[in-house]
Amino acid sequence: MFLSEITRSFVSLVSASVAASVAASAAVARSTASSTTVTTAATAAAAAALSSSAAVASLKSNHQHWFASNLSQRRFASLALVAAQRTQAQPQPQAQSSSSSSSHSHPTVTATASATATAIAATAQSIQSMSTRSKRSATAAALDATPASTSAASTASASTAAGRRSKQPRLDVDLTADDQPAAAVSISKKKSSSAAASAPSAAAATPMDTKWDASTDDDDEPVAAAAAKTQRSVASALMPRASASTSAGIAGKWTMVAGSLLRFDPDDLVHSSKIIGFDLDDTLITTKSGKSFAVNSGDWKWLHPDVPTKLRELHANGTKLVIFSNQKGMTGGQVNPEDWKRKVSAILADLGVPMQVFAAMGTDQYRKPSTGTWELLTLGTANGKVPVDASVALYIGDAAGRAANWAPGRKKDFSDSDRKFALNLGIGFHTPEEFFFKHQPAPFKLAGSDPKEFVNAFKNLPLFTPTTASLTAPKQELIVMTGFPASGKSTFVRQKLVPAGYVHINRDTLGTWQKCVAATRDALRAGKSVVVDNTSPDTESRGRYVAEAKALGIPARAFVMNTTYEHALHNNAFREATDPTHEHVSRIGFNMYRSKYSDPTAAEGFTEVLRINFAPAFTDADLLRRYSQWMHS
């Protein structure tokens, strides 16, 4: 086991840490101990944990790829403590590597862990007995010198308290090179000589900031309690990585799926039956600039400091974390794909646990609320063929259909695609406020009609009205179709009129209305019946063709599709999701049709007007399932 090898490699480090920690505890116990004494002693404890160069060399030799990742000095100390505790809790296999220290038995490790925990608890208790201001200074220093997992949890606790903090003087504790023993400074320089040269702080060589904001209210969580809470998420903090990562990103593989889906798989990704999906923007992160859209790849911050803490806890509990994000701006030129990838890599590097990422760049089956990305997990290999347990799966997103002022001063949700995505999948849904901060659900309203209604929209209606009319004519005629884009005109024409011998005239094929008029004229002059399959919303657009029929003495009829605006939008999204060859039709086209529409009448020259109640029929069960889902927001 990898963790067992680390345990054996770090036994000597634990011993050094115990000695320094006990010394720190003894110094603090004296009533004359000052905050500076505590700071120096606690810092020395962390530095001493790194003083055994032999153990560090052993780890580097056996686990070069893991050692190269961005672990701070504090995190090495954390490894020593937690590995010892795990060795105490469960038997370890025999050493497999000659470089591992196999001479240390379980009693040694047990005593080491116990002594270390005792020393840290004593230090924490002594710190809490100081005055309020001295307590804050010492707490900040002690936390900066404890294992990284403890520091991370305490920092998160301080961040949680930020929402309720009163206006107190801000206190930053900065452990510079002058505050640290020479051993710690030299190791920092070895890790990044360029960083050490540009800044005096050893923290400059690592992505973990040694500044800790202690300016919280008097109800701050005690240090000892914060350290106890840390044990629940320490497995997440110590998860080994498959390859080296840097402060600028995280190791993994970016791939393009079907030309429209950007996918990222971290090297250390672990598949699981337990999956929780997240939107990215305004769910996990927001902009530093305060603008609606990021100005560059560095314009991001966590939505709240508690967010990464919660994600690490979920990962430690065996839950696979997945980001599903609509990023059409990458194909529209608003977002640079390489910048976006850099941002995501930086986010995951800061988080420190693996998350799989799917970014839908188009308007096809991968764009939420369509379920194509999820199906890569459940039906494809994106989850390593591990079955997904839908009963525990969740999706978290901010596009939830909430009206303005769902919370005081909050704007209306820009969309409801996240909620519809979860509805399509049949899994639980929460907004970020509900999931991370336990807010009560806010009222919401989904846009459009339930797509299941569209399946049966015309089920009990005749194909056309009036029913006394005839769908086709025994003599030559002109039919002008009228209806929204994606209202079913072309399918209806191909299924019902073309087989009866009608010439099909369509602007999608010919390109311009002028060519359509010319083709209509030629077919009518050739004695053919013609059906013009365009939207033709108004008298002007229909009159061009009626004039051609009238000039030849040929009767004309109008066929109007009864498909509603919402139904047509659904059809449009469905065909884009299932037919990659179909060109995208923007909502502008639907709105223009609606604004121009007027009912065709006999005054325009039509001998008859039929209303068509047409919906697609499916023989493919999977297509019917998709058609029954929410397809747009």
UniProtKB/TrEMBL annotation:
<feature type="signal peptide">
    <location>
        <begin position="1"/>
        <end position="16"/>
    </location>
</feature>
<protein>
    <submittedName>
        <fullName>Polynucleotide kinase-3'-phosphatase</fullName>
    </submittedName>
</protein>
<dbReference type="GO" id="GO:0006281">
    <property type="term" value="P:DNA repair"/>
</dbReference>
<dbReference type="InterPro" id="IPR027417">
    <property type="entry name" value="P-loop_NTPase"/>
</dbReference>
<dbReference type="InterPro" id="IPR036412">
    <property type="entry name" value="HAD-like_sf"/>
</dbReference>
<feature type="compositionally biased region" description="Low complexity">
    <location>
        <begin position="138"/>
        <end position="162"/>
    </location>
</feature>
<keyword id="KW-0418">Kinase</keyword>
<dbReference type="GO" id="GO:0003690">
    <property type="term" value="F:double-stranded DNA binding"/>
</dbReference>
<dbReference type="GO" id="GO:0046404">
    <property type="term" value="F:ATP-dependent polydeoxyribonucleotide 5'-hydroxyl-kinase activity"/>
</dbReference>
<dbReference type="InterPro" id="IPR013954">
    <property type="entry name" value="PNK3P"/>
</dbReference>
<dbReference type="Pfam" id="PF08645">
    <property type="entry name" value="PNK3P"/>
</dbReference>
<dbReference type="InterPro" id="IPR006551">
    <property type="entry name" value="Polynucleotide_phosphatase"/>
</dbReference>
<keyword id="KW-0732">Signal</keyword>
<feature type="region of interest" description="Disordered">
    <location>
        <begin position="138"/>
        <end position="224"/>
    </location>
</feature>
<feature type="region of interest" description="Disordered">
    <location>
        <begin position="84"/>
        <end position="114"/>
    </location>
</feature>
<dbReference type="InterPro" id="IPR023214">
    <property type="entry name" value="HAD_sf"/>
</dbReference>
<dbReference type="Pfam" id="PF13671">
    <property type="entry name" value="AAA_33"/>
</dbReference>
<dbReference type="GO" id="GO:0046403">
    <property type="term" value="F:polynucleotide 3'-phosphatase activity"/>
</dbReference>
<feature type="compositionally biased region" description="Low complexity">
    <location>
        <begin position="182"/>
        <end position="205"/>
    </location>
</feature>
<keyword id="KW-0808">Transferase</keyword>
<dbReference type="InterPro" id="IPR006549">
    <property type="entry name" value="HAD-SF_hydro_IIIA"/>
</dbReference>
